[in-house]
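Escalation from tier 1.

The customer reports that the assembly of two entities below gives different structure tokens on two consecutive runs. Tier 1 could not reproduce it. I'm attaching the input and our single run for tier 2 to review.
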Amino acid sequence: MDPRPKVLITKIGFDGHDRGSRIVAAGLRDAGMEVIYTPPWQEIATVVKLATEEDVDVIGISSLATDHLIVPKLMQALREAGLADTAVIVGGIVPDEDEQMLVEAGVARVFHPGAAIDEIAAFIRAIAPAIRARRLTA
Amino acid sequence: MNKPIEDRLLAAGEAEAQWRREYAAQIGGERAVTNRSGIDVAPLYTPRDWDASRFDADLGFPGQPPYTRGIYATMHRGRSWTQRQLIGLGTPADYNARLMDVLAQGATAVSLIPCNSVFRGVDMDESHFELLGTCGTVVNTAGHMQRALAGVDLAKTSCALNDPSPFTLLAFLLATAKRRGTPWHAITGTSNQSDYLSHYVANHMFFRIALPGARRILGDHIDFCNRFVPKWNPMSVVGQHMQQAGATPAEAMAFTLSTAIQNARDCLDRGMDPDAFLPHFTFFFDISISFFEEIAKFRAGRRIWARVTRGQLGAKDPRSWRFKFHGQTSGVDLTRQQPLNNIARVAVQAMAGIFGGLQSLHTDAFDEALSTPTEFGARIAVNTQNILREEAHLTDVIDPLGGSFYLERLTDQLEAEVLRVMKIVEDAGGMYAAVESGLVQKMIGDSARRFQQQVESGEQTVVGVNAYRAEEDRSARQPQARPDPAAMRAHLEEFKTFKAGRSAQAVQAALGELARAANDPAINVFGRVVEAAEAGCTHGEICATLRRELGFGHVQAVV
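Tier 1 run:
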């Protein structure tokens, strides 16, 4: 099996500002990861399906205009699909009170504007092996 | 008596040579300075970089072609720019309360940002409830618009609607006017998001009908407004999306002008008179913190547009030559780190827009990188404009930086760079073809990555992010304004009741007519959208009908 972390970078909800998701997707790919990228406006069900089919370790959700408010719905859908071990990270404009809500909902980490690609890549590299191990034994 | 001119030039030449020697000795190993558009910036500019003998041909006077110094004779000294702050949150009643507040504070025009669900072409009963009203106002019907604009005299207040194709918000506004007895020919304002090409270039959040359909609806919209709402500006060409998505200032100006030319040619192909529609073309730009470059961008854009409209577009009326633009300070330059620093950034961006000769201005709130702007942040943003105008006296002199060797040279260089990029688009078959093939999206993506690399390498300083970092200061954080869920729930229930109580027959008939128009080029689609709005059809129903008949414009995955 390919040892590289496998990451899905996507956007759910209504907003389509995709500069952030495109830059992060390209940056993680350049950092040696296997990246699945989708355009914005994905349905939660589509993200779950894609995560299942592509067998990703990490799902990265980009949010500029409050779309992260439906990430708890995504977490629920992932658990229902048996993907509780797949890590979800969120990047974008996320107010403090929402960050707390997301962490409580099970999001592994929230990255804010100004986060360097290296920082995001280092975090994924750090968590990916354990996620992979858990997913393979599950 | 003055020395002969040859002697003076020789002396100047010697002086310059001496300055060069001293500069080189003192500066040591200097790294090249390049602006965001890729233009090298010299340490000093002199008359050899810009020769004042070109004044009459390339600068001239404000209000006269090529309008380098401004499109009106009096510019900001005569009339300030319009303070057009974007507002929109929650229910129509929430919006109306906020609107009354903003008008009382001195705003001179109305703007309406609808909820992202509206941008995406769906009604509130088809949306995630959690997201409703969090980024804009939920307006799905003519009744909602009537409530949102209660107490606003439509014959006296200019309305800017963020209203992408198929322009249902304008349709709801026209239906409201008809119910109130306000004649359509008295209505003024702008369809802010009518530029479908920019929505394809920079996805943002807009409902997108497949390209051929979107092109046709825009033409119908311009034609309809020219005939029935003659003071309305149906065309706002949007450079803002492209620069926000990563285009350099020169690229953003080039793509915007190429888009305007494309739309104008489409109108000419319909047999329309350029002097009928061009006076109602407006532009909308991002203003980055690259101060002199932005000023030069606007001056160069004005000059090119004056020449293009008079030349290849064949306009004879000076109103067709004037490059009217709204500017918004760039959110991309704002940082989450040490957010109060953003107040300084916005002030510099706003100054660039003012010196660039804008007609209306939105200043971003300092907390935009943290959240949807709060009222506290929005108040400082409005006062930033008031301070620049009335305390700093930036408007006392028209085009006050005109004649600066640097700015004039930079304006020339920006103009050349803009024309170079416009030529690439033209060689690709024009803006429609260049967007259809993905060429423009590719160029913008490349520029976005280049800029990101400059920030990550530290080549471009961003205070608080890659330099001058400090302990996280949370004192500036304001609680996030979110709509009251109970009020939104009531708005949703009322909407469902409204839909159940309508004449199903009238709704179906209107949507049927809309579908028929979509398939018959002889019928104006936007006219049918207005009729559907009057018949009680909802935004989502109108969008769904056109999506079905004309196809949806999906986003290609390009990384």
